[in-house]
Amino acid sequence: MKLTHLTPVWAWQLSLLLLPLSAAAQTQRPLFPANQEATTKPNIIFILTDDQDLHLQSLDYLPLIKRRLVDQGTLYTHHYCTTALCCPSRVSLWTGKQAHNTNVTDVAPPHGGYPKFVSQGLNSAYLPVWLQEAGYDTYYTGKLFNAHTVDNYLSPRPAGFNGSDFLLDPFTYSYLNSTFQRNNEEPVSYEGQHSMDVLTSKALGFLDDAAKGDRPFFLGIAPVAPHSNVEIPSFGSTSNSSGVHDAVFSAPIPAKRHEHLFPDAKVPRTENFNPESPSGANWVRDLPRQTRENVDYNDHFYRQRLRTLQSVDELVDDIFRHLESYGLLSNTYIFYTSDNGYHIGQHRLQPGKECGFEEDINIPLIIRGPGVPSNTTASIVTTHIDLAPTLLQLAGSPLRADFDGEAIPLTAEGLEEASEYRHEHVTVEYWGFAAFEGEYYPDGGRILGNNTYKAVRVVGSGYSFYYAVWCNNEHELYDLTTDPQQLKNLLHPDEVAPATLLGVPFEKAVSRLDALLFVLKSCKGQTCVRPWHALHPAGNVQNLHDALAARYDDFYLKEQKKVSYDRCEMGYIVDAEGPQFEGVGLVYRHGTRWSDWV
């Protein structure tokens, strides 16, 4: 069959089959050090904090992490989580899949938590299992998933670990009353000891075990700092087995040696901090301005977060000391990130996450290891969905066809090439509640109803946008080039939209963003990485700028379906989420021959 006689349908299908090969050929060579021998697989240490911010300047208060990681590695400044909530984000990180493909969208059943992870068949299909298959010894200590409890820790045991020592609910976030569960043993309470000190001891113990082995190792370390301290009084009740809705969220508790630090620190007073005028969309726009007492308390909350992170700073230094003592540092990659970000006061929000603002989704990612440029910042777009492919490729294992992300380049050459060819988008999605942490919350209560939305974050050459559609079909658009604090929703009725955006009529630019989100909100595999290719199979549209060409106007403005919801749901219920991308019939088809598409 000749390409010139392919129908649009067959051309689209063939192009998707060829895409993974061409994409891999384009990026494989420079991703990792060229001289790394297959017989010397690197060790991997992965440190995953809980709720750590990038935009509230927490890294500025961590001198040991700066010296050990930032100064000697690469900080990826445009790294994003795809769901700003603990459990969905962690499941996506370890599986390399968007939450709409794992269907783990909450912290507790029925839509999330460890039981949902198991019921979705993911306990046999995530990173530690794959690393063991690649010849690695695997260890893990700290928080794995929410709703992993003192009751279900062997129902079943999390697969894929040679050694594990997990924090368990309902004591996961109790800094002075933690419970850990090691391997197949019964849970042990550490009441009266600070959980970060307990975790550090366990992490170093596993590092000792790994160093004595004769195989490469993976060590996951997941401290709860700087998450709120949480007490769950109703845990185990038949009506509320997770205790999510009546849990008490208070400021995190630092180790006693750190409780006096940073007495004058305050939440950065950015333009979007407790603004005079409302901002955002949906329920966010209805929030009252915070009182002076409220702001003072939130500053205290902020200081407690910084103080609690000092134990993480010490943990990282201890890890490096051990690696140096064993002579392992030169062949070990260290990854440092968080499950999601955090806001305190921005857009009048009380302490928490669960939103699509930069504070919640743009988070730290620092990588140090063989061939990784030192003292470098990288501005390419990376996401949590990219981390499993990255680690699996480091392990020398073939990538999975169902990954929704692609490996992150770790060399100077790879970063330079990625700046030209890498995707520029992040798929952001959320279902269910928003929670207010701390002592202040609106009259409606600490848990706020439905917070379901889909969004896309685009960071390209000369533009930076966030576009979202909420389940009540309210729309949101920020031009972060001119409005980096996301204070002016260009699609809100109270705002005056500009006549043009990117040099074209405003509605034309919005139509392209909506079509991009339309593909991403239900994408799978390579379509999540290269969504424009799904809309333009000829390959002549690679980014938002290309899609703005005038010849596509009718397709985007008149023919393409729009993102919408049929109703609000607390989890991923497909028939509530409006029209879905189906590929065939929704691609740009200018003619019936391949040459007509180019």
UniProtKB/TrEMBL annotation:
KW Transmembrane (keyword) present: no
Sulfatase N-terminal domain mapped to chain residues: 42-396
Pfam family of the protein (one): Sulfatase
Catalytic activity: an aryl sulfate + H2O = a phenol + sulfate + H(+)
Extent of the signal sequence: 1-25
GO molecular function terms attached to this record: arylsulfatase activity; glycosaminoglycan binding; N-acetylglucosamine-6-sulfatase activity
Keyword Hydrolase in annotation: yes
GO biological process assignments: phenol-containing compound metabolic process
Keywords assigned: Glycoprotein, Hydrolase, Signal
Region listing for Disordered, in residue ranges: 267-287
Protein's recorded name: Arylsulfatase
Organism of derivation: Coniochaeta pulveracea
